[in-house]
Amino acid sequence: MTDSTDTPTDFRPEARAPRGFADKRARDLRAERAILEAVSAVYERYGFEALDTGAFEYADALGKFLPDSDRPNEGVFALQDDDDQWMALRYDLTAPLARFAAQNWETLPKPFRRYAFGPVWRNEKPGPGRFRQFIQCDADTVGSARPEADAEIIAMAVEGLEAAGLPRGAAVLKINNRKLLNGLLTAAGADSAGQKLAVLRAVDKLDRLGVDGVRLLLGEGRLDESGDFTKGAGLKGKAVDSVLDFVQAGAGGRAATLDNIAKVIGGSAEGDEGLLELSRIDAALTSLGIADDQAFIDPSIVRGLEYYTGAVFEAELLLSTTDEKGNKVSFGSIGGGGRYDDLVARFTGNVTPATGFSFGVSRLAAALRAAGREPGGAARGPVVVIAFDDAHMPEYFSVVGELRAAGIPAEVYLGTSGMRPQMKYADRRLSPAAIMLGGDEIAAGTVTIKDLDLGRELASGVADNAAWKAERPGQQTIPRGELVAAVRKIIGG
């Protein structure tokens, strides 16, 4: 029997982050901020305006409908508001744009060109590199059916990724058009949606299975090494050959690829339409100065063709990347987009042309770091003023005030530890310098500065620790009036 006066005072919640929700420290936040600032500058130079929509949208606006009375569809985090309407955290930035455009169409400039960045949430099973919350960055044009609008999005994506830290040759935009393969398959007699989807899935495995493996999946099916059988798309001989000829039509240069595609899809009205659109995209990209090594046509790109209505493009990382242990890491696709002319129509009933590009900011930051191109520069903490004596606290704060006024991040150590732990603290913060101001320095009007950056550099290359200690690298005592100049030299040096 429990005493009614007992209270559960011993409960301790477990300190754990929900799966798929990452904690980010300064290094990660600095990297993301650097990428967003660089990319935003490019997008604004192209004439795109910034737009921020709310974190929540009504579930039906996101395309997530209620299968029963208790919960919204899987894939989103949802709740009911005080009107008993289901709201969900946005799972991308495109669906909110479609809602915004439909809601404000009469007052918007047309075409409407916007870019946006911010967190999105997906109620999906998390895994390595797969999060439930992450930062996306999008740019879209709504209201233009011109292929040149697609070309400008592609050019902007190329310049944006380069500005973010990927030098020319480190990434490439691959371009395709849904209408090409649609027209080809219709001409071959594959007119059901299920069969077309099976073809897309087969082509998507080209890199992994090769031509012979895809040929089997386009036909009757394929038996893998484990003995499992995958049913094929059911195309017959000539149709299979046409699809394989199409996906292998890439010739590096855009003009040569277009010539190859024309030889394969001849006779298809939809295919010819897609070919004309790609030709106009190519011409616009050439005028914008986007070379073949920055963006090329690749008929084997099929991801997203279910969703997109015309042009589709995918950004692929070409840089060699390794993890912190030196192991090779493959990032592959780091962004994508295309034309989606049906999305706004969900709200208005009227087809509204739109095209856009999206990339994951955290994924790009991780890729840049793995390639040795730390976004935002090397990690660096504030200058730390060592606290020797409580009586001198006003003087310590006078020093940090002076440094902060000069634009230099600085802090007074506010723990209770002695000098040695304070120096360890400064080193752990990756501080460029530590300021020592004892009674003798205060009386003499001087200050002692220890160059921690130099100390770390020397320490890493000195085998004899005793010799390193004897040298006391980077420590100097200077007049107080020279403090800011001396610290600036360390930071800039």
Structure explained in plain terms:
- This protein is α+β, with helices and mostly antiparallel strands and 493 residues long.
- It has 2 domains: 26-370, Bira Bifunctional Protein, Domain 2 (BirA Bifunctional Protein, domain 2, 2-Layer Sandwich), CATH 3.30.930.10; 383-492, Anticodon-binding domain (Rossmann fold, 3-Layer(aba) Sandwich).
- The chain has 17 helices and 20 strands.
- The strands form 5 sheets. The chain has an 8-stranded mixed sheet. A 5-stranded mixed sheet has the order 17-16-18-19-20, sandwiched between helices. The chain has a 3-stranded antiparallel sheet with strand order 2-4-3, with no helix packed on it.
- β16, α12 and β17 form a beta-alpha-beta unit.
- α1 packs antiparallel against α3 (147-164), α1 (26-45) crosses α11 (361-370) and α5 (193-203) runs antiparallel to α6 (206-218).
- It is elongated and about 90 Å long.
- The model has no long low-confidence stretch (mean pLDDT 87).
